[in-house]
Amino acid sequence: MKQSADVVIIGGGVEGCSIAYNLARDGCSNIVLLEKKTLASGSTGKSCGIIRTHYSQELLMAMAHKSMSVFRGFEDEFEAKSGFVTNGLVFLGTSEEVEGLRDVTVMQQKLGIRAELVHPDNLPKFHSGISLDGIELASYEPDAGFADPYGVTVGFAGGARRLGVEINEGVEATGIEVKNGRVEAVVTTKGRIATRTVVNAAGPWARRVGAMVGADLPLFVLRFQESVMRPAQGYPLSMPTVFDQRTICYYRPESGGFMIFGGAVIELQPIEDPDNYSEKADTEWVENVANVLLSGMNNSSDMKYVRGWAGPITVTPDFNPILGPLEQAEGFYIAAGFSGHGFKLSPMVGKCMAELIMNGAARSVDITPLRASRYKEGKYFQSKYARAPLT
Ligand SMILES: Cc1cc2nc3c(=O)[nH]c(=O)nc-3n(C[C@H](O)[C@H](O)[C@H](O)COP(=O)(O)OP(=O)(O)OC[C@H]3O[C@@H](n4cnc5c(N)ncnc54)[C@H](O)[C@@H]3O)c2cc1C
Predict the structure, then answer these.
(1) Known SUPFAM superfamilies for this protein (predicted)?
(2) Which candidate, 373, 1, 5, 359, places its Cα nearest to that of 184?
């Protein structure tokens, strides 16, 4: 392992690997990435992989939109399987979301994203199985899709390696040396790396990594569950992803006639220690999934539960990520707190963080509203939907 580097990235999830690749592509030549377990073994490996641009904040919509074109061309750019499927997305709103749906659709069209509002009577054109009770308005985004988070992470890592990045799996950062307010080195389980720039992309462990430079980052970890279901007649890959605001849930097709279901249908529990939590879906969750599907879909009584899992999401006070430098320790950057929506943003997270580190500012999208100091300044960056904090 190298003993000095221009940049050390802590975390081999989708964000750390995207940052490593983009830094190397922008000309940074001496980068080390540390991953304490294996690539994508944190939140990334548990992700549902949904990709959409439906955000109520233009900054996030722009990041998601630009990221989507990277996902679309991923297999050519990285010579790796991304599993990207375009299946479209239907967002079902109650009376509380009508105004938001209108605003988001106008903003999407302004940014050149294909999107349209859908009256409930016309929903069967997009998804014949949805019961229409309680839906006031919907929107449809034909280019939304999903991809394989593991494949994408390994693809970014492969691209980074080809550009000279040293990726060390099984190596944990255990401390960061700071002298006169500036980062000097990262201490690891395999030795010390002298560096003046560190990126904290440690996902659910990012608060611990922040503590290594004396920061108390406002990051909290919640347990988020997913289930694989299968209707008797199967669920074709061509079916759109559905976000259903009546029950605050979502589902998308998966190959083999399966569907993956997620959402906040039971209260999310905190994870105190991301190294030690139950990764199995709870009985209460499984029972609620069945009830929610029954209430939102026609003919769902023949739906079979196949398996389920739980993974950690790292949330901030406004459910949006922290991207940028930390004032207290020069050379220390944070890319963490992605809640349940960091996968779809990952290509632009990497690009913007690389631009920020190399040039002092992100050019592709202005990410300053996501700076770490925003909470202290009272400038929370939250969704305009009261009941959909991740949009
Ligand atoms: C169940 C679930 C469903 C989701 N569904 C979606 C979705 O449909 N769409 C979407 O966009 N997003 C989704 N997300 C969110 C998305 O998965 C995350 O936002 C994203 O994966 C975060 O990536 P990351 O790289 O920040 O974190 P992680 O993937 O957790 O990576 C952090 C890495 O850092 C390593 N690490 C930590 N500490 C150290 C250390 N000291 N030294 C070395 N390495 C260290 C860890 O081992 C880990 O591999 C979902 C998340 C979950 C849990």
Answers:
(1) FAD/NAD(P)-binding domain (SSF51905)
(2) 5
Rounded to 5 degrees, what angle do the CA atoms 343, 344, 347 make?
Answer: 85
List ligand 1's pocket residues with C-beta within 6 A.
10-16, 34-37, 41-44, 46-50, 172-173, 201-205, 209, 224, 226, 262, 311-313, 336, 338, 340-344
E-strand ranges in 64-181 read: 85-86, 89-93, 116-118, 137-141, 145-146, 166-169, 173-179
Residues paired with residue 31 on neighbouring β-strands, in sequence order: 7
User: Helix, strand, or coil here: 225?
Assistant: strand
Whole-number Å distance between alpha carbons of 77 and 64: 18
Distance CA 117, CA 139 (A): 4
Place domain 88-143+220-315 in its CATH homologous superfamily. D-Amino Acid Oxidase, subunit A, domain 2 (3.30.9.10)
Q: Which amino acid is at 11?
A: G
Tokens of 146: 């999903």
Distance of CA 65 to the CA centre of its chain: 14
Q: Tokens at residue 270, please?
A: 């905190």
Instruction: Give backbone dihedrals phi and psi of 377, rounded to 5 degrees, phi first.
Output: -80, -5
H or E stretch at 230? strand 220-230
pLDDT digits (tens, 9 = 90+) for 194-232: 999 999 999 999 999 999 999 999 999 999 999 999 999
Instruction: Indicate the Cα dihedral angle 196, 201, 205, 209, nearest 10°.
Output: 10
Residue nearest to ligand 1 atom 12, measured at CA: 341
Considering the chain, what percentage of its residues have pLDDT values greater than 90?
91
Q: Do 33 and 225 meet the contact criterion of CB atoms below 8 Å apart?
A: no
For the chain, what is the mean pLDDT? Answer: 96
Ligand 1, atom 15: closest residue by C-alpha: 340
Which residue bears the tokens 């913007």?
352
Helix H or strand E encompassing 102: helix 98-110
Sheet holding 322-325, edge to edge: 166-169, 31-35, 7-10, 198-200, 332-336, 322-325
Q: Where are the domains of the chain?
A: 1-87+144-218+316-391, 88-143+220-315
